Amino acid sequence: MVRDGSAAERRFEGRLRSLRSAGHRITAQRRAVLRALAMMGCACGAEDVHARARRIYPRLGLVTVYRTLAALVREGLAQTVQLDDGRVRYELRDDGRHHHHLVCLSCGSIARLEACALGRLQSAGLRRGFRVTAHRLELFGYCEDCQPSGGRHEAR
Amino acid sequence: MVRDGSAAERRFEGRLRSLRSAGHRITAQRRAVLRALAMMGCACGAEDVHARARRIYPRLGLVTVYRTLAALVREGLAQTVQLDDGRVRYELRDDGRHHHHLVCLSCGSIARLEACALGRLQSAGLRRGFRVTAHRLELFGYCEDCQPSGGRHEAR
DNA sequence: GTATTTGCAAAAGTTTTGCACATCC
DNA sequence: GGATGTGCAAAACTTTTGCAAATAC
Q1: Does the UniProt entry include the keyword RNA-binding (chains A, B) (predicted)?
Q2: How far is Cα A139 from Cα B100, in angstroms, rounded to an integer?
């Protein structure tokens, strides 16, 4: 990847700046984690990020990955995603915008879904005095390549 | 609790019957787990279920709770909920109907939200060839008793 | 009577913590 | 130079597995 002045590169530098202005120091390890996250698309486990980031900074420890991911989440630069396996997944936030996930029950693929139709639910929360500031939604089912024949899996 | 012919009690017996007809045996342990789940409302961790069910069947092991919960989920009688702490939560499904959760970021309380406005998202998935059969949604924010003064927490 | 279930102990897997050393600003 | 960050090893936590004894049907 050429480190030109592309939009992706500007976003990368912006995230570094955000981290720095939040009082964190910029180290080679954190650059590596951030770059790995940016290259990997959505919903990666810490171990995956570690493997990818090690190709950039080989001495990187898994512990540092966890600590960096926690910092990114704390500063609002990344967010967690929880699927059905017991592990926490991470992804960068794209600043303002916001997406959900289509998780295929057959092949496990995870695709982004940009639509967000939660307005009605948010107001249902409000009506009960609950101020909604965040939400998490995952849609499960079968992707185009995995349309099942039977009807074994029902809606949850 | 009086084991009368109330609606709750009929639902309890119905769940036992479902388990049995799915080929599982009905043991005192499974009765205790099921009853504990029914009494506890939504989104309880396995450890909580264990503690509650032990008041009914004191010798109950945690392992049995895990195995029973897994069986209930497999048979569609219960479902899992994943919040931000790393543990899996369980709740009984109320047969057909379907609810989401309002999770207070301040006090941690979890309330049921019966509304479901996912139609638009489901069709957005379909448009991409993805057949949505299940979803999971959690709304986070502040409950009536915990309305914050500042604006520290933004939407995710 | 036989297959299923249980409980214990131990294992597995992910995530966190303590601490000495290194590094950023 | 001093606070912050890193890596290792070990701990903490939830969840799973192996196995002999107990139990449902």
Answers
A1: no
A2: 13
Print the domain residue range for B80. 1-96
Q: Are residues A92 and A102 in the same domain?
A: no
On whether both B109 and B72 belong to a single domain, the answer is no
pLDDT value of position B149 = 60
Q: How far is A84 from chain B (nearest CA, A)?
A: 8
What is the C-alpha separation between A55 and A119, in angstroms, rounded? 42
How far off is chain B from A22, nearest CA to CA, in Å?
Answer: 14
CATH of the domain at B39: 1.10.10.10
Give yes or no for CB of A67 within 7 Å of strand D: yes
d(CA B113, CA B119): 16
pLDDT value at B48 more than 60: yes
Q: Which residues of chain A have pLDDT under 70?
A: 1-5, 96, 117, 125, 148-156
Q: Which residue spans within B18-73 are E strands per DSSP? A: 44-45
User: Final residue of a domain: which of B67, B96, B125?
Assistant: B96
What letter would DSSP give residue A13? H
pLDDT on residue B1: 54
Please check whether residues B75 and B118 belong to one and the same domain: no
CATH number at residue B140: 3.30.1490.190
pLDDT, mean over chain B: 85
Quote the pLDDT of residue A96.
66
Spatial distance between the Cα atoms of B91 and B45, rounded to a whole number of angstroms: 9
**C18 C1' – A63 CA distance, angstroms?**
13
Edge-first strand order for the sheet with B110-113 is A110-113, A100-104, A131-142, B131-142, B100-104, B110-113
Q: Residue B59 CB closer than 7 angstroms to strand D?
A: no
Do A91 and A136 share a domain, yes or no? no
B1 and B65 co-located in one domain: yes
Last residue of a domain, one of A46, A80, A96: A96
What is the tens place of the pLDDT at every residue in B74-127?
Answer: 999 999 998 877 789 999 988 767 788 888 888 888 888 877 767 767 777 677
User: pTM value?
Assistant: 0.84
Calculate the angstrom distance between C1' of D13 and CA of A93: 28
